[in-house]
Specification:
The chain has about 260 residues and is α/β, with parallel strands linked by helices. The strands form two sheets. A six-stranded mixed sheet has the order 6-7-8-3-9-10, sandwiched between helices. α4 crosses α5 and α6 packs parallel to α7. It is globular, with a radius of gyration of 19 Å. The termini are far apart. The protein binds adenosine-5'-triphosphate. Adenosine-5'-triphosphate binds next to α1.
């Protein structure tokens, strides 16, 4: 079996009196493409934020290559770098594409501007956006804005050997995109995984059928705070698990209650 790179053990999280995650165990192995699916509001984005170190669980532990994490991301550097692509591209509209992608290096490193610009251009090339560094986000399409946020997530600081992104977390990367723009993003996710070295492992939260099928090799299904089913992507059409059958068919009848 592949080496476990990230492990959640007994993770619980509540907001107010609503328990969103209830004793969740989850592993991401090196080289794995994990899909996290389930009905809306079931805690998928919350899991990504906990893995990224942006939010602390109420109880449970997060292990990064077997080392227990203490605190949030600003308190320490993990042995594995984790990049996150947010549901909304979350770009600063008053900054250029280059300034958005290089934002953390411009803010936190002593690298010369020319060096950061070179690194940014490398990442823009990788996401198919060569020559867009001087543009502002407002002139880009939704799919292009997503790709800028990919470039930002894979930025690394060459002065810090631990800063190379090794795990990428994608929160609904194809939401709101037309089928063709979604295909471009799905291809890009697979392309980044195929590049030798850095971004071989990822977890992706998505509701889109094509994204589930084209970008994942293992699926976990979350419902009512619990991990209810997991299996290979090839099993998703064959399992008779009632939650998966209802979710994948979009049927209104079944164990998942329709909100509203
Ligand atoms: N910071 C927060 N404060 C209060 N409630 C929150 C917070 N973050 C998430 N929630 C609530 O927790 C629940 C789970 O949210 P989360 O975004 O993780 O779900 P999700 O499965 O990703 O949903 P969707 O598929 O609709 O994006 C929701 O009811 C949400 O309103």
């Amino acid at each position: 079996m592949s080496k476990v790179i990230i492990e959640l053990k007994g993770i619980s999280k509540s907001f107010g009196n609503k328990k969103v995650l209830d004793n969740v165990d989850l592993q991401i192995c090196r080289g794995e493409a994990l899909g996290i699916i389930g009905p809306s509001g079931t805690g998928k984005s919350t899991i990504l934020r906990i893995i990224a170190g942006l939010m602390e669980p109420d109880s449970g532990e997060v292990y990064i290559e077997g080392v227990k994490r203490e605190g949030l991301i600003e308190d320490r550097i993990d042995g594995v770098s984790i990049g996150m692509v947010f549901q909304q591209a979350a770009l600063f509209d008053s900054l250029t594409v280059e300034e958005n992608v290089g934002f953390l290096l411009y803010q936190n490193s002593k690298l010369p501007r020319s060096c950061i610009r070179k690194l940014v251009n490398e990442k823009l090339d990788m996401v198919g956006l060569s020559g867009t560094g001087d543009l502002y986000p407002s002139v880009l399409s939704g799919g292009m804005r997503k790709r800028v946020s990919f470039a930002r997530a894979i930025m690394s600081n060459p002065d810090n050997p631990k800063q190379g992104t090794e795990v990428l977390l994608y929160d609904e990367p194809t939401a709101g995109l037309d089928p063709i723009a979604s295909t471009v993003i799905e291809d890009l996710i697979c392309h980044l995984q195929s590049i030798q070295g850095a971004w071989g492992s990822y977890a992706i939260v998505t509701h889109q059928d094509s994204t589930i099928r084209r970008t994942t090799d293992r699926i976990v299904f979350l419902h009512q705070g619990k991990l209810q089913w997991q299996g290979r992507i090839s099993e998703i059409d064959n399992t008779d698990h009632p939650l998966i059958r209802q979710f994948m068919s979009g049927n209104l009848s079944g164990p998942i209650q329709v909100a509203g």
